[in-house]
Amino acid sequence: MSNYGDTPDETPQDPYGQQPPQGPPGEPNYGQPYGQPYGQGPAGTAPFSVGAAFGYGWSKFKANLGPILIVAVVLFAVVAVIQILQYAVSGGSNTAFEVDPNTGQLESTSPGMLGGSIIASLFFGALSFLAQLVIESGIVKGSLDLTRGRAISLGTMFSGIDFVQVLIASLILAVATIIGIVLCVLPGLAVLFLTSFTLYFIIDKGMPAIEAIKASVSFTMANAGTLIVFFLACIAAYIVGALLCGVGLLVAVPVVVIAQAYAYRTLQGEQVAA
Length: 274
Description:
2 strands; mainly alpha; 274 residues
C-alpha cells in the first residue's frame, strides 16, 4: 500500500493477477518468472505430466473435431494430390524398361512429360514441403489458440502467421536434420528434439526464425528430463497412427500438436485454458 503523495504503482498486472515475468537485462523471457525453475508455474498452474498433456490434447481434439479434422484431411489430400501429379508427370504406369544391347543393363524408357527427371522430383518435393509447412503452421496456431480458450475456425487457424519466418526456420532445420542424420542418425534426432518448439515460438511470440530456434533449444534443454519422455510418447503416437493404415494419423497429428502446445504453455508457467 502506498502513502498519500507517493508515486502510484503503475506496474501492469497480467490477466491472472500475476506480476509480469522479469528476466535479466538483455535476456529474452518466454513467460517464465526470472529465478523460478522451469516446470513450476505460478499459483494455479497445473503441473506438467505426459499423461495430462495427451489427455488435454484428446479432449480438445474431440471438442473441436470439425475444424481440426478438416485441416488434417486437407493436409493428407494435398500431399496425395502432389504425389499423384509427380507420378503422372514422371511417367507413372507408362514407364517401360528395355535391355541395352551394348551394356546388357535394364534401362527405363519412360515417356513421361519430364521423364522422371531430377527437376520434376525437386519441384514436387518442394511443393509438398511448402503445403505441409502451411498446414502444420495452421494446426500449431489453432492449438495455441485452444490453450488460450479461443474458439478456432479455418480462418483463425491460418491468420496472423509470419510464414516467411516459418519458412526460414524450417529450411534451416531441414538442412541441420539431414546433416545430423548423415552423421550417424542420433545427431539428427537431437536436432528434431531440441528444435521441436520452434514453430510455437514463431507463431505465439512473433520471434524471428533464428531467435525462435534458440528459444526452443533453451526451452527443451531446461526441461530435458520431462520432454525426452514426452518426445518419445509423441513418436509412439505417430507410429501407432501410421500403422492404422495411415488413417490413425488424422487423429494422432492434431492430438500430438495440441499436447505440445499444452507442454509449451505449462512448462513456461503460463495458464492453460480448461
